[in-house]
């Protein structure tokens, strides 16, 4: 079966969603407010349950994913944790210098 810690990260990228949770069992309390849901029969009589609801958190201004981390970073309050790590890793440059950057320099900076 799925390993919740690894597979949920892969599934949210495959499905292009902000959040995926893999549960070992259904809890009535957790699923009662899930608007879109269904139970499906898969191989050898096993069943899976799929529910779709809004992701937790606020929308990141950079990647548009919803994350509870948005608002956690004082220097970039509108970014999620992933985008915050990217932005703080970018070299700071004077705006006038940015206008002079060639396409090859830009590609090199992205691949570093």
UniProtKB/TrEMBL annotation:
Alphabetized InterPro entries for the sequence: Ile-tRNA_ligase, tRNAsynth_Ia_anticodon-bd, Znf_FPG/IleRS
GO MF term list: aminoacyl-tRNA ligase activity; ATP binding
GO biological process annotation, one example: tRNA aminoacylation for protein translation
SUPFAM superfamilies: Anticodon-binding domain of a subclass of class I aminoacyl-tRNA synthetases
Domain Zinc finger FPG/IleRS-type intervals: 57-83
PANTHER family on file: ISOLEUCINE--TRNA LIGASE, MITOCHONDRIAL (PTHR42765:SF1), SOLEUCYL-TRNA SYNTHETASE (PTHR42765)
Record protein name field: Isoleucine--tRNA ligase, chloroplastic/mitochondrial-like
Species of provenance: Nicotiana tabacum (Common tobacco)
Lineage summary: Eukaryota, Viridiplantae, Streptophyta, Embryophyta, Tracheophyta
């Amino acid at each position: 079966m799925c390993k919740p810690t690894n597979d949920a990260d892969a599934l949210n990228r495959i499905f292009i969603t902000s959040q995926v949770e893999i549960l070992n069992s259904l809890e009535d309390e957790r699923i009662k407010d899930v608007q879109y849901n269904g139970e499906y029969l898969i191989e050898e009589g096993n069943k899976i349950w799929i529910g779709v609801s809004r992701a937790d958190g606020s929308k990141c201004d950079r990647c548009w994913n919803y994350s509870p981390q948005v608002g956690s970073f004082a220097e970039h309050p509108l970014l999620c944790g992933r985008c915050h790590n990217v932005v703080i890793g970018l070299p700071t440059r004077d705006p006038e210098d940015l206008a002079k950057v060639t396409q090859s320099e830009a590609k090199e900076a992205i691949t570093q």
